[in-house]
Amino acid sequence: MGYCLDKAGFNQVLQALSRENVVYAPKLFKDGGGFSDTDRVRYGEIHTVEEIIFDRKSEYSFKEVLLPLSQTLFFFTEDAVKEADAPQKGAVILLRSCDLHAVKRLDAIYLENGGEDYYYKRLREKVKFILIGCQHSFENCFCVDMGTNQTVDYDAYLEIKNDKVYVDNHNKVWDAAFAAHSTGTPAVMPAYVTQNETRVRIPDGITLDVMHSRMWDEYDSRCINCGRCNFVCPTCTCFSMQDIFYTDNGNVGERRRVWAACMVDGFTDVAGGGSYRKKNGQRMRFKVLHKVYDYKKRNGYHMCVGCGRCDDICPEYISFSNSINKLADASKEVAANAGK
Amino acid sequence: MLANEYLPFLSEIKKVIKHTDIEYTFRLTYEGDVKPGQFFEISIPRYGEAPISVSGIGYGTVDLTIRRVGKVTNEIFERYVGDKLFMRGPYGNGFDINNYKGKELVVIAGGTGLSPVKGVVDFFSNHSEETKGMTLIAGFKTPQDILFLEDFGRWQQMLEVILTVDCAEGDTACQIGLVTQYIPELKLKDVAEAVAIVVGPPMMMKFTTQGLLDRGFREENIWISHERKMCCGIGKCGHCKIDDTYVCLDGPIFNYVIGRQLLD
Hints:
Chain A is an alpha+beta fold and 340 residues long. Chain A contains eleven helices and twelve strands.
C-alpha cells in the first residue's frame, strides 16, 4: 500500500514505532571518521527522518543490530551462570537492497547452519526492515552482478522526493500509522539500480585448486591483516568467545562473544601454538573463496552481496571486486600448471 | 522454547588419571548420549572455553584426556576430584561404530590422537566378536609420553597392539619407530575390504594415510579426525571452517574421501 507523508507526519510515525522499537538507520557521526576532522556514516538510533543519511553509503553495515560487536551471553559467579537478558524493545532497521539480501546470509548461518542460535533468534524475531531505495549506484558497488540490487522482501519501502516521504508498506500492523498521516495513496515502487560502474564476473566451474594460484601472493605484502574488510562486511558473521571478570570481585564476570575476523592474527590459533593460514595471501584466498565459492556450495547462492564496503574501507586500496575478476585467469593458470 | 546452547552446566570431577606431567584424564559426571570422537566445550569462567574430545564413556561419566597447553587447560589442571568444571556439548559427529563392525580394522594413533579414538578401541576390545580382527598402532614421542598405559595391558589381551615410540634412552618395553613403518607389515586377509582410522598430528596423519593407501587400503575405507579452533561448536563462530565444511558440524571425524580435500 502506497502512502505520501510530509516529513513531520513521517516523524510522527517514527515516534509511534519507537515506542516498541529502536529505529536504526545510517546517520552521521560528526568527527567520528578514521582521520581527524572527518565524519563517519554508520548505523545508529534515529528519531527523525532528517537524521537519515541518504546520499552516502554507510561505512559499516546494519549487522551490529543483529550481531552486536560485543554481546554478553551470560553472567557467572563461582558455581552459577545467569543468562543475559534480551533487549526489551524490538528493532526497525532502514537499509538498502544489498543489505537486506545480507540478512538472508546472516539467517543462513545463525538459524540454519547447525541449529538455531539462541541469542540471534531472540533479536531477529523482533526486527522489521524498511528498505531505502538506490537512485544511483555508489562507488565500488557491484550489486547488479551479485543479483542483490532488487528486493521485495521488506516491511516498508521509503524514499524522499520533493521533500515528501513516499512509502510502500507491506506490514499490515503499520498501515494505520501511515494512513493517519498520509496525504495520499500513490503507487510507490522501490527505486533500484540496474547498472554499476564496477563489474564482477565469477567464473563458472571454479574448483578449490584455485587456492594454489599465484594470484594470492600479491596480498602477502599488500594486505596488512587489519580485518576492516571483515568488520564492514554485512555478511561476515564470525565471533570469538571472551571472558571478562570484574576488578572488584574476580570470581564474578561475564562471557561475551565479540566479532572475529579471518583476516586478523589469531583467528585460527589452536592450543599449543599451532595456527593455519599464516600468510595474508592465504587469508585473502580464504575470504574471497568463502564469499564467492564455498558458501554457495553449502547454501546454493553466493555470500557476497556486492555492497563494496570492503573496497571503500581498505587502507591498502585492495579491491575485492578486482580479486573476484582475477579468479578466471587464476583458474586457467592452475589448470595449465596441472597439465605440466 | 529454544535451548540456549551457550549456557554451560556444572560437572564434577570424579577421578583424575595422570598419564604424563602434562596429560591427565579427567573423569567427569555426565548423563546423556555421547559417542567416541565427539567433543565437549570445557570452560572455566574468566579463562574461557576449550574443545576437548571424549576419551572414554562410562555410566554417568565421560573421560576427557587433556593436555596442558593453553590458558584454559592450565587452569583445568589446577582442579582435582570433587572440584567442578563447566561444560557444554557433546558436539560433532563422532565415530560411527557401524562403519567398522564385522571388518578388519586398523587404528593408528599418534600421541593425544589416541584419546578421541580410544572409545572405538575400547568397544572392539570388549566386543571382539564384532570385528574380524583389529590392530592398534599407537605411537608416542618417548616412553614417558605414553598415554593410557594401564589400558594397553587390557587391549593387548584382546587385540593386536603395536606400541611404539619415536625414540627412547636405555631399555624400553615398547618398540622404537614411527607408526608408518608398521603399515607394510600389517597382516590382513583382505586389504581391499579392511577399514582404518587415523588420528594424530597433521604430519603423522598425512604420511600414515599415504602409507595405508600404498598398502592397498581404499580411500573410502579410511577415517580421519580434523582438529581446529572451535569457539562455539555449533556452526556459528566460523573458526573451524575449511572450504565449505564446518569441522564442528560435519566432523571432526571425516571419511578420507572428504577429509583429504580439507586443505588449508
